[in-house]
Task: inverse folding
């Protein structure tokens, strides 16, 4: 029970959800908005990836900022996949719409892995490296099922 409480606490501290995250204020299409948010997740993920690879020094504050960015994006992501929102520029597979519950569970798993990454960063580099591998596995499992191959 305390683990759930910890996750909720981190979410409350890290994720002030803004109304502009969905892109409505930018005049974007729904596909453009979700692509922008996916790119923001990729950029955020590069921060801890560089630390794990030894290309950047371990920096707990930078991990926290990256996790915040991921949580902000994943919090609105489920609303950015309404039925019929596939177009030529979308890399989403129809499987998202065929199994929406599983897709949304995978987004929640990514959020949980991101929160675990922030907690692990507090414990130090070794715990952080393990948590990052779990975080990346979460990303990869979703992309394998719901994203067109590059």
Result:
């Amino acid at each position: 029970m305390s683990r759930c409480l910890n996750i909720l606490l981190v979410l409350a501290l890290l994720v002030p959800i803004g109304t502009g995250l969905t892109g409505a204020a930018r005049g974007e299409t729904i596909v453009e908005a979700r692509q922008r948010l996916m790119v923001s997740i990729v950029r955020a993920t590069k921060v801890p990836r560089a630390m794990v690879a030894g290309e950047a020094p371990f920096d707990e504050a930078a991990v926290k900022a990256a996790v915040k960015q991921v949580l902000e994006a994943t919090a609105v992501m489920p609303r950015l996949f309404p039925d019929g929102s596939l177009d030529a520029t979308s890399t989403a597979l129809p499987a998202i719409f065929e199994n929406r519950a599983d897709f949304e569970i995978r987004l929640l798993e990514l959020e949980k892995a991101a929160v675990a990454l922030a907690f692990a960063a507090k414990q130090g580099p070794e715990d952080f490296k393990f948590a990052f591998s779990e975080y990346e596995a979460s990303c990869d499992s979703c992309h394998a099922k719901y994203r067109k191959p590059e």
